[in-house]
Amino acid sequence: MAELFGLVASIVTVLDLSAKVLGYINAVKDAGNDRARCGLELANMHGLLEKLKYRAQRQESADSKAWRKTAKGLAKQDGLLDQFKRALQRLERGLEKAGKFRWKFQKEEIQDILGHLERLKSYLVASLQMDHFELSTAIKDDTKHVPYLRSIIEDSDRKAFINWISSSNHPAEYESILQLRQSGTAEWFTSTPQVKGWLAQAKTTLLCRGNLGTGKSMLAAVMIEYLQKSARSKTVGVTCVFIHREKNNSPRDNDHAPGNMDNVSELLAGLLKQLVQHHGNVADSVAQLYKKFAKEEKKLSESGIINALKEAVEALSTVYIVIDALDECTNANERDRLVKHLQSLQSRADVRLMITSRIVTAELLSATKLEVKAHPWDIKRYVVGRIQKLPAFVQSDGELQVKIQDVITASVGDVYVSRDELLSDRLLI
Questions:
Q1: Is the entire prediction scored with pTM above 0.90?
Q2: Would you tell me the crossing angle of helices 136-143 and 264-278 to the nearest 10 degrees?
């Protein structure tokens, strides 16, 4: 009981601080996109923390050992709430120092803060999806390497160390894709023979091939979520790369900047960064490289990155790598080189590759293949979830609802259509 009271008190403290900082940010004038992004992240976190508080309050009268243990882990020093509080205090100090109506943060500094907030948000989202908030293990695994990283790298330099490896944040990309998912959809995916075989057999490659718009990115995100929940061991690594997300701001064609789609070194560095962030034994060896090269303002070469990755996968029992939209790497030579590098990791350790693509490259001919098409059940589930927003006469007519489901499912065919398009573009009432 005391642990739960302590958790609620900690959440309230962080909520108050986040509201205060959000007020400062909203008062700032002419700060551009950085201020807007920061405000959006804090607003999202504030809403998630409110949900966490509500869940915790509901459990105060329950006799749950799992809850008490997790509550203690969340509220402890260097736990999720403590980390979020420190990030907020960092923002608060900066705003107060510059004046509440000025934005003092440099681009690099705010990117560092935003990256930290995004990671904390991912843990919070995960916690709200887990029974009994079994987040303490994830937090423990993530912060386990901090003590001996401090012996190599000063506290103030740890963020620079992580960003030295890569500035990418692919886990945040998969979370944004998952936000488009209708509850209950894509559950069939992990039950297919191809996926079951890939999950059960070491050093295997699963190629999910499908045409544009068939939902490959969603399945990649669903797989990452599944692995993170099922492979909860400190010796198992789960990493991902969303290649098209380097260029586009959404799974749709909405270009906003020429990203590093064909930069193999950066894609590989993104994988290394994820392993370093979650596994202390990996972080230790890479930190030594950082100490060696950072003073000269040098980054790892492509060969240096792949060598570090080989050491990293050898230090773990199993590493899952999910690569989405390989075909978006438009330079064929770069694409082939990326696949060969990934396959070289399989020769050193139990690395299991899942790749989504519209094309099948020569290097992937021997991979287990799964043809991706929009699943009728997924379409119906989505429509059912959206029908509640239609006029009352539709909601009261069960026969009409069934007809709507059948018509839309038939009209969509093999193409995965997201958000409001199913009802706004294909349904006229």
A1: no
A2: 110
